[in-house]
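Dear colleagues,

As part of the handover before I leave the project, I'm documenting each prediction I ran so the next person doesn't have to rerun anything. This entry is a single chain, and its sequence is reproduced below.
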Amino acid sequence: MRRFLRHSSNLPVELRLRRHSPSANQRLDNISLGGAACHSSHALPQGTPVILHFPLLDEQLAYPGQVAWCTKQSEHYLLGVAFSEHAPELRARMVEEICNLERYRKHREQQAGQPLPLELIAEEWRKQRLGIFPPPKS
């Protein structure tokens, strides 16, 4: 039985090996407070340290973790990443932001009656919430 509820999402995610340059953008499959599953063109061994970065959420935030499992799909791999090092409240905020963005995307696509570019939706969503959640000060 899972410890955390999983939330489906297909947001772009950048999966970086901790000691290497960023990989190509991948797609998230699902996310929870404990970790995430994302699609990858390459297999990674269990225990590999990685960093997840969600470019549509925030340019600065990165979430360290390690590969918990890797499953071959038809033409790619599905990687399970267990989060590490972050306070539970920061992980909860990230999951909440992803869920809110997905909810907003569905609402806007329903209004438009067609799929909309995710980048456009994310930009609209960021502008709307700036007054509510101002960007962190450096």
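The chain has one domain: 7-130. The mean pLDDT is 82.

All the best with the project,
I.
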